[in-house]
Amino acid sequence: MRIVDLIIKKREGIELSDKEIEFIISNYVSGEIKDYQMASFLTTVVFKGMTPKEIGKFTFEMMKSGKIIDLSAINGIKVDKHSTGGVGDKTTLVVGPIIASLGVPVAKMSGRGLGHTGGTIDKLESIPGFSVELTDEQFISQVNKIKIAVIGQSDNLVPADKKLYALRDVTGNVSSIPLIASSIMSKKLATGSDAILLDVKVGNGAFMTTIEEAKKLSEQMITIGKQLNKDVRVEMTNMSRPMGKAIGNKNEVLEAIETLKGNGSKDFIELCYSASATILKQAKVTDDEKEAYKMIDEVIKNGKALEKFYEFIKYQGGDVEKLKAKDFWNPSFKLEVFAKKDGVMEITSALDFGIVASKLGAGRISKEDSIDFEAGIQINKKTNDKVKKGDLLFTLFSSKAISNELVEELEKAYTINEKEVENKIILGKME
């Protein structure tokens, strides 16, 4: 078997066999197939696509290219939630404790942020003492004891995806639904959960900019899940605007806490409740949406979800007292942005807010960059809020002096209108 023959076969639109796909992945990971050959194969896939059978096998071979976590020792239906990346997306910090407080085991592996999107692991590491590194035994034991653990992605998890993603990035082969779907699903499936909720972000702050693209990706990922006997469901959510009122790390942790107290912003509460309800159905706690919402409401109102959050932080070494202290988030510099006229706020670009937050120090431009946990943006006026001239719109925070140029960059990301605009949060659900 030769890779050149398989490239030609794929180019001619002939479906590859299971053995041929296994040959491609295993030989690329071992180095037998060179980058220039694999780049040619990936380019062919971008133009010719893949059949559902090919995508399923491609994902499976990527998944088993490295370590697969065995969660069979965890009691119950293990659930995981994955977001395709957004601005102000601290959903895991709220949904995880809600679900765990209702007795559903949450065994989650999360990533760091890169570019304009924030990472769950970065937010958790902003809490003094919190450790994202647990052995498999510690991870399983913690989920069995308190129903939730969140760890960083292991270096030996899905090495095929690491190699392929790096190659796709530098050869212009990122925008392919089959390749995106197999990349996401190989990592999720390798972490061993029984049920996976995928939050597919749509809009200018997301990788999928249109609902049509998001539906195609969602269909592919659900199909992969079915082929590998996993319950995979999708919620497509709006990422044309930042989620919630905080963008950053420490300030997003604080917003998550406020949301668990019942004081979250309307859009973020809607996202968290919807995701939690879907997961409760996947975990077979209830098959009734209204009942699920009642259960979520109850653990917010009686404080059990917040209690679970603090327990989870403490179990992974986080200093809960420092987290609760008034000076937990204590940036040295701030710059306020005020309204220049009366009207109704419309935030038009999550992407620009994410980029400005990164430039303040809240995110990474390259993987080697360190993060300023104090940096970020607080949004005082959300889309469709009434605004009067002189009202505080946003506050920029950092540990270093803040340039007025960043305020100018933000000016292209919002407008003040005469009337309200449509602002749907949940754009669609698929299963």
TrEMBL record:
Enzyme class: transferase
InterPro entries: Glycosyl_Trfase_fam3, Glycosyl_Trfase_fam3_N_dom, Glycosyl_Trfase_fam3_N_dom_sf, Nuc_phospho_transferase, PYNP-like_C_sf, PYNP_C, Pyrmidine_PPas_bac/euk, Pyrmidine_PPase_CS
PROSITE patterns per the UniProt record, alphabetical: THYMID_PHOSPHORYLASE
This enzyme's EC code(s): 2.4.2.2
Keywords, alphabetical: Glycosyltransferase, Transferase
Domain of life: Bacteria
Location of the Pyrimidine nucleoside phosphorylase C-terminal domain: 344-417
GO molecular function term, any single one: pyrimidine-nucleoside phosphorylase activity
Pfam families the UniProt entry points to: Glycos_trans_3N, Glycos_transf_3, PYNP_C
Family in the record: Belongs to the thymidine/pyrimidine-nucleoside phosphorylase family.
Assembly mode: Homodimer.
Record's protein name: Pyrimidine-nucleoside phosphorylase
